[in-house]
Inverse folding.
């Protein structure tokens, strides 16, 4: 085999397309890689202008690069990326290296091209994703931010920072601790402690006050976490959200709650006192005063449930590990003590652990107690069961009463909100709904005229 044939075999086995072009840019030789990359047989390209296969948008650039390479006085090499037409009419991104290195044996200029389509598309996808992230960050009302591990360098912050903290992003870039000047003096120690925890590798969740202007302050909520590489904190990222309105509503709820319960209890004590006088001084009044007393006691009970709901709404409810078997058992024992005439049957309770809010016990008690109170006769019967599935804990409360009205059960399933036209008759089921919802669970209701009511609570279980 002659040396030229050996060289041809080697060139045909290379991954890159190797071509010889004359000074006008006409193909005089193309190796076999053209078939793999572009779908052309090498002989189909020989004699054709290389520029005719270049995408129109990049054709002028390729012509200019080729001309610069071959016309330079000294050695020159140009590298250019462009789209090359393939045999099926599609476009393939290639990177071509062209130089003026030639001799009589070559009789042309070598152009080596490799397929970079995957790389170009990946870069385009990354650029689009980055563009989308920047667009989202630009319009977000939350402050999105990133610092290095010791807070000495600001890596990113979006425009929302300026509105919440009252200083420019440029000032924060120059001094990454500038945001600290806007923090309320009373909250500054807690914020500094949170920053130290993040630098040490611990995520934080904190609320504090900032003063973007003189005499004004807002409440913000910050969630942040460290980013680690090989166990070392390299960056700290998080978001800051203005929660002033939410804090204001919570404070208003607490104030109204205290006023309502205090005034209601005082006023009902006056009413109960008057009913005692009526019973002693007015013959036959006992029947009517009993109604007054019963309604008054129901109002006090509703006020106590309202207090529990306000606590659920206004306080941050962290989920804790709960032994649900123990909780259900305690609920049943409590109900049996308070309602000795009721029959509360318990199926074999299975041991199962969940992560739920601490008020979950109130929800279970409410469901059992509601069934007892609404029994048609004086001997109410309720059945309670607890079973475990591979993923859930399931609490079921059954009775044989008339179907619960949909206006009540829709509260449990979250299908309706309170309104002036549509509302349930009490707060008990709302308390159940919020307890289960905060605990990450769901409620289903089955009501049948013949079989009674079945209320099922499902909660995600955790490993014991």
């Amino acid at each position: 085999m002659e040396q030229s044939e050996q060289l041809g075999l080697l060139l045909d086995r290379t991954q890159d397309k190797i071509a010889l072009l004359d000074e006008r840019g006409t193909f005089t030789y193309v190796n076999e890689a053209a078939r793999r990359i572009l779908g052309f047989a090498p002989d189909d390209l020989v004699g054709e202008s290389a520029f005719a296969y270049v995408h129109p948008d990049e054709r002028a650039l390729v012509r200019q690069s080729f001309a610069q390479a071959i016309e330079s006085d000294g050695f020159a090499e140009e590298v250019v990326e462009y789209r090359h037409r393939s045999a099926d009419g599609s476009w393939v991104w290639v990177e071509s290296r062209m130089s003026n290195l030639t001799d009589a044996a070559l009789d042309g200029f070598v152009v080596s091209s490799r397929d970079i389509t995957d790389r170009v598309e990946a870069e385009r996808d990354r650029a689009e994703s980055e563009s989308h992230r920047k667009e989202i960050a630009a319009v977000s009302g939350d402050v999105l931010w990133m610092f290095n591990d010791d807070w000495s360098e600001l890596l990113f912050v979006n425009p929302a920072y300026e509105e919440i903290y009252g200083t420019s992003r440029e000032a924060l870039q120059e001094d990454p601790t500038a945001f600290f000047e806007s923090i309320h003096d009373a909250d500054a120690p807690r914020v500094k402690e949170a920053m130290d925890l993040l630098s040490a590798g611990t995520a934080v969740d904190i609320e504090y006050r900032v003063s973007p202007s003189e005499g004004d302050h807002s409440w913000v909520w910050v969630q942040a976490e460290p980013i680690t590489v090989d166990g070392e904190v390299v960056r700290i990222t998080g978001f800051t959200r203005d929660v002033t309105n939410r804090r204001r509503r919570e404070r208003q709820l607490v104030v109204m709650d205290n006023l309502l319960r205090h005034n209601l209890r005082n006023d009902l004590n006056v009413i109960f006192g008057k009913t005692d006088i009526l019973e002693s001084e007015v013959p036959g009044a006992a029947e009517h005063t009993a109604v007054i007393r019963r309604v008054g006691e129901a109002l006090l009970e509703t006020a106590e449930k309202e207090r529990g709901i306000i606590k659920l709404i206004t306080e941050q409810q962290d989920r804790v590990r709960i032994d649900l078997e123990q909780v259900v058992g305690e609920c049943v024992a409590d109900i049996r003590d308070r309602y000795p005439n009721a029959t509360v049957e318990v199926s074999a309770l299975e041991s199962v652990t969940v992560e739920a809010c601490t008020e979950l016990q109130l929800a279970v008690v409410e469901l059992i107690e509601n069934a007892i109170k609404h029994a048609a006769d004086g001997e109410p019967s309720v059945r309670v069961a607890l079973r475990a599935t591979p993923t859930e804990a399931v609490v079921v409360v059954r009775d044989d009463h008339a179907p619960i009205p949909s206006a009540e059960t829709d509260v449990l399933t979250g299908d309706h909100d309170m309104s002036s036209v549509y509302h349930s008759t009490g707060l008990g089921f709302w308390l159940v709904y919020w307890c289960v919802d905060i605990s990450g669970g769901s409620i289903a209701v089955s009501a049948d005229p013949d079989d009674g009511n079945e209320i099922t609570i499902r909660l995600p279980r955790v490993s014991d």
